[in-house]
Design a protein that fits this description.
With 744 residues, the chain is an alpha/beta fold. It has 24 helices and 27 strands. The strands form six sheets. It has an eight-stranded mixed β-sheet, sandwiched between helices. Strands 3-2-4-5-7-6-12 form a seven-stranded mixed β-sheet, sandwiched between helices. Helix 9 packs across helix 12. The longest helix is centred in the first third of the chain and has 31 residues. It starts with a strand and ends with a helix.
Length: 744
């Protein structure tokens, strides 16, 4: 064995450690719970100069997968990590990677697939990847996450097939355990060996075309070659397991069992629940029951003979799925075990049990209850072949409303009004703070936001300018999570949620269905305003969808609360994060100086799409905010999309005091990081000019108010601050030029 040391780390941390030791060329990634820690740890190690991996934060998982594919086609060693809907969003790219036979390693911290939204662990995501042509390893403890990440790359490069290392989200991904790791990085690299890709896009003497258009019979042959590679994997993987045992002392098998050789009743289960089931087996063995448990370390390729050899003695097998293949009478694991037993002419009875959905804990008592059903089947007693563990069915009788719904009349106190004049210009009257108090809150005070969170301050000011009935759509994010924890809701109006990448498209469908139903006389015309609320980086991954809705002319309002990061996943850098800012994926250290790029200018991006109304607003100028909301409502009703961006404080991740957040926002406005202006049908108007008020300050005065950017006061960041100031001044001067122009 080679020299090793003991660490106390989580599965995510050990995946990052293995990647660091391998020193991949590229990691293309997008943050999603519970896999995000992998990128965070690698970024932290990179800031300390411990590896040379180039981390590329994409704007979504689909693009992250594209980054990885391109890097692998360039001959690089490539790494990624994702979970749940992130895997599904990227999944179109997975067959591209395997079909063109480029190796890489992808970690999947398994999590519930939305909807409804849940961030807890089950296996509903990884089962979507079974038919993508990737090798799939499944680690049940953090030690295996580390080991399989090293083994995976060797398998991938030997077979020229990409490999997924999957493990239970939050159970294995976050729980810390003792693990043995190699002391020397070179020992890991020596085990994996050199990689000499047979094809890359950099062979200029023999140029290649990658990803051709392909018809029959060539496509059949392509898929057959991938099948052959998978079949080779059935013999290669055990061989590499043995080679790894030689250097680590840890032996792995495709399938393993506990007390399975003579078991009459056996649970077949995946992941971290295996150890729980082992405890139940021990309890039953003490009572004289021949119970056993089995699991697999390799989901693809599916090794029929190896698995059957472990489970063949059992007369009743209960396959436990942490997901369901709805309508099939069992999850994917159940279906595959049934097919395996059929191929092996086994007479064993198979029961299917779905457990642990949405991260629901699996206890020894649950395993013992499953064994009770197995014993009933063994004794030919009546028992359900398929069932859920710890299920309940709602009666539908309980009224779960906590607040009386707001009527159209309640929401129309006429504290602000807007109208178009004969020349097409809009005028707004009202909007002062005192009058706005008559507008009832559409979002109740009861929510779970952090103290000082700016989301609901901004939302409540904005909604004071919106009269009548509304339908709200929230992207995934803090604003959504803290208001809708089932069975409670903070909303007194109709609300719908969808994921970042498709929120605007969803609201497009809602409003156009409403228009059609009104047109056909199926609904009364209630003059509804459709509003999408986005933040927490939602208009990175969701920007394409939002621009598309704007280009289609759908009459909705997009309100972006910009808190400068992916806050709902623990503050990873977003394209809206300030340059130089410290985040969990843009650390500050000897080899890294915070976020490397300037913040994205979404108002100008939306303006370039030629939507009728674009504006910025601030809680420090509430009357201006209310008037802009009213304008947005009128433009959305009559001309098309309206977009408003407000700066939203996040004390937890900005690392400042909640009581001072209004001052922090004010400084952001006064330094022109967040200037207040509006663009009506292409014509720009500055609404507040800090220079004319003698309030203009340098950007460092704002940055130094927050812990995330306070380090920029140091002499070593002088150049960074000068670059930020220069860029803010450039944008401000261009804005003033537009303001002075009759055409811009």
């Amino acid at each position: 064995m080679l020299s090793q040391k003991i660490v106390f780390d989580s599965g995510n941390e050990l995946a990052a450690l293995a990647a660091k030791q391998i020193n991949y060329h590229i990691m293309g990634y997008y943050p999603i719970t519970p896999s995000t820690q992998v990128a965070e740890q690698l970024d932290l190690m990179g800031a300390e100069g411990l590896h040379d991996i180039k981390l590329i934060p994409a704007e979504g998982e689909h693009s992250a997968a594209g980054v990885c594919y391109g890097a692998s086609a360039a001959g690089g060693r490539v790494f990624n990590a994702t979970s749940a809907n992130g895997l599904l969003y990227a999944i179109e790219q997975l067959p591209v990677q395997s079909g063109t036979r480029f190796p890489m390693v992808l970690n999947v911290a398994c999590r519930t697939v939305s909807g409804p939204l849940s961030i807890k662990g089950d296996h509903s995501d990884i089962m979507f990847a079974l038919n993508c042509g990737w090798i799939i390893l499944f680690a049940k403890v953090p030690q295996e996450v580390y080991d399989f990440n090293i083994i995976a790359l060797k398998i991938a490069e030997k077979l020229r097939v990409p490999v997924i290392v999957s493990y239970d989200g939050f159970f294995t991904s976050h729980q810390k355990r003792k693990a043995s790791v190699f002391e020397k990085d070179e020992d890991v690299l020596n085990f994996i060996g050199e990689y000499n890709p047979p094809v890359t896009v950099f062979d200029f003497e023999n140029p290649v075309t990658i990803g051709s258009y392909m018809n029959e019979p060539d496509l059949t042959n392509n898929k057959y070659q991938l099948h052959i590679a998978m079949e080779k994997g059935k013999s290669l993987i055990p061989q590499i397991f043995e080679e790894y045992c030689d250097i680590s002392g840890r032996r792995y098998h495709i399938c393993k069992g506990y007390m399975a050789k003579d078991a009459d009743v056996l649970i077949f289960i995946l992941g971290s629940a295996y150890d729980t089931a082992k405890d139940a087996v021990d309890n039953l063995r003490q009572k004289g029951v021949k119970a056993g448990v089995a699991t697999v370390s390799v989901l693809r390729p599916w090794a029929v003979s190896e698995i059957y050899e472990v489970i063949k003695s059992a007369k009743v097998i209960v396959v436990c799925d942490r997901q369901d293949s709805f309508g099939a009478g069992g999850g994917n694991l159940s279906i595959e075990i049934k097919a395996l037993l059929k191929d092996c002419d086994s007479a064993a009875k198979v029961l299917s049990r779905v457990y642990g959905i949405g991260g629901c804990d699996f206890y020894v008592e649950d395993a013992e209850k499953i064994f009770e059903d197995a014993l009933k089947a063994l004794n030919s007693e009546e028992v359900l072949k398929f069932d859920y563990i710890n299920k309940y069915v709602g009666s539908g009788e309980k009224d779960l409303r906590y607040f009386a719904p707001l009527t159209k009349e309640d929401s129309s106190p006429d504290n602000v009004s807007a109208s178009f004049d004969e020349s097409g210009n809009m005028t707004v009257s009202g909007g002062n703070i005192k009058e706005s108090l008559r507008m009832p809150r559409r979002i109740a005070p009861g929510h779970g936001a952090c103290p000082g969170c700016g989301i609901f301050i901004n939302l409540n000011i904005f909604l004071k300018g919106i009269s009548g009935n509304v339908v709200l759509l929230f992207h995934t994010g803090c604003g959504m999570v803290v208001t809708t924890a089932y069975p409670k809701t903070s909303f007194k109006v109709n609300y719908i949620h969808n994921l970042f990448q498709s929120g605007a498209a969803t609201l497009s469908g809602v409003l156009e269905a409403y228009n059609q139903k009104v047109k056909r006389g199926e609904l009364p015309d209630e003059d509804v305003t459709f509003i999408m609320v986005s933040g927490d980086g939602g208009l990175d991954i969701g920007l394409g969808s939002a621009i598309g809705a704007g280009l289609r002319g759908h009459g909705m309002i997009v309100l972006e609360y910009d808190n400068g990061g992916y806050m709902n996943t623990g503050y990873q850098q977003s394209y809206s994060t300030p340059k130089g800012a410290k985040s969990s994926t843009s650390h500050v250290g000897k080899f890294e100086k915070g976020k490397l790029t300037f913040h994205k200018d979404n108002p100008q991006i939306f303006a370039a799409a030629n939507i009728p109304y674009v504006a910025t607003a601030s809680e420090t100028h509430p009357s201006d905010f209310i008037k802009k909301a009213k304008k947005a409502q009128e433009y959305a009703k009559k001309e098309g999309m309206a977009y408003i961006k407000c700066l939203s404080a996040c004390p937890l991740n900005w690392n400042d005091e909640p009581r001072y957040e209004k001052d922090v926002i004010a400084k952001a406005v006064d330094c022109c990081y967040h200037p207040l202006y509006e663009i009506e049908n292409g014509i720009t108007t500055i609404n507040y000019n800090p220079e004319k008020k003698n309030n203009k300050v340098g950007v460092l005065e704002w940055l130094s108010m927050m812990g995330r950017t306070k380090h920029l006061k140091g002499d070593e960041f002088k150049d960074t601050v000068e670059e930020i100031q220069k860029e803010i001044d450039r944008r401000w001067e261009r804005l003033k030029a537009r303001d002075e122009s009759e055409k811009l």
